[in-house]
Amino acid sequence: MISWPHAALILGATFLAAISQVMLKKAAEKEYKSKIYEYLNPLVIFAYVIFVVTTFLDIFAYRGVPLSLGPVLEATSYIYVTIFGVKIFGEKINKRKLLALALIIFGIIVYAVIGNR
Description:
It is built from six helices and no strands. It has 117 residues and is an all-alpha fold. It has one domain (4-115). α1 runs antiparallel to α3 and α1 packs parallel to α5 (76-89). It is flat, with a radius of gyration of 17 Å.
């Protein structure tokens, strides 16, 4: 049986992890005075803290979500990262990316409709 609050927690944690990925990409675009500062700066440290927090949120959320549903919900990260890439980094969406996102969304819908019987 699915606990919808737990499923929402996985979706929220996935969204936070996507934000963390954006923070790491932003940090990677900057020039640093030494290699150590590439890893020991507030943006990178905070991004990794978010990753750790989302890991614990996922662990808790799996108490109410079947193992077969978790990866389906976490697949939404591709959607978030693509949207962030377009809005924040000015990336372009080509036909292949659009098709890939459509397949991901289709897979989520198929699981929601028939995969949970």
